[in-house]
Amino acid sequence: MAARLAAAGWRVTGFDISKERLSMAEKRGITAASSSGEAVKGAEVVFTSLPTETVLVDVARDLAAALPVGAILVETSTVGPVASAKAAEALRPRRVAYLRAPISGSVNLAESGGLTTFVSGPKASFDAAREALAAYSRAQIWLGEGEEARYAKLAINLMVAVTAGMMGETLALAQKGGIGWEAMLDLLGESVVASPLVKYKLDPLRRRDYTPTATGALLLKDLDLIVETARQAGVDVPLAEEVRAAYRAMAKSQLAAEDFFSLVKR
In this model, does residue 211 exceed pLDDT 90? Predict the structure, then answer.
């Protein structure tokens, strides 16, 4: 995503705690900074992509002292609305416009600029940042002034997770009925259930290729967020709980090393 911003002509300075990531960034036209504070100095628009809710809140508190007054923070992580609201509170004294802007799509879509981003936060700030968002996304959808985008991301990932579990059961039932693995995958691709996600996964499944676009461990983390957010909102999500149990039953090594669709092997 940062590389696409740089390729679109934006001057991009970045920071990561991983020296390997910084080296990769420099090869893609991104200036490496020695700290997050240095990276955001003088920036009008700042993007963050962080691994956990705890890290998000910590980084928001750090950035609150470093971000220029009036800057726009575009926060792309997958987190729940409670943690996101804590980040917003940390940024409020600096008068930073906080856009919750998670994305939907794979690494390949990020490289090609085909992601979807759904955004909530100040509408005027969304309009001001939209050209930058368009550098890595084909669609930018504004959902409201608050935490709406966080709920949207978790809701979509719930459907992603359930699709993986559903395909596992589908393939198992078909094989018991004498239908070959490849034949059933061909059928799924030509049927009414052939969503973009299903179609995207058909070729890797034909090859039994579980090279991760997102690991099982990452999706399990998302399912924990989904179930907890639903509990806080008073929403029953039995399918999410069932799929989460299936991921938890997978070996830790498989979760860490393989694509989340390796759930079909179970």
Answer: yes
Max Cα–Cα distance, the chain, nearest Å: 65
Domain map of the chain by residue range? 2-146, 151-265
* pTM confidence score: 0.94
Flag whether pLDDT at 266 surpasses 90. no
Antiparallel, parallel or unpaired: β 115-120 and 103-104: antiparallel
Let me know: does 20 contact 38? Beta carbons within 8 Å.
no
Range in 35-39, 93-97, 129-133 the model is least confident about: 93-97
Please report the pLDDT score of residue 166 as a whole number.
Answer: 96
Q: What angle do CA 188, 189, 191 make, to 5 degrees?
A: 60
CA angle 12, 58, 123 (to 5 degrees): 60
With both helix axes pointing from N to C terminus, report the angle between 148-176 and 181-189 in degrees, rounded to the nearest 10: 140
- Residue 68 confidence (pLDDT) above 90: no
φ/ψ of residue 116, rounded to 5? -110, 135
Q: Say yes or no: do domains 2-146 and 151-265 share a fold.
A: no
User: Distance from CA of residue 60 to its chain's centroid?
Assistant: 18
Q: Which fold has domain 151-265?
A: N-(1-d-carboxylethyl)-l-norvaline Dehydrogenase; domain 2 (1.10.1040)
CATH 1.25.40.20 fits 2-146, yes or no: no
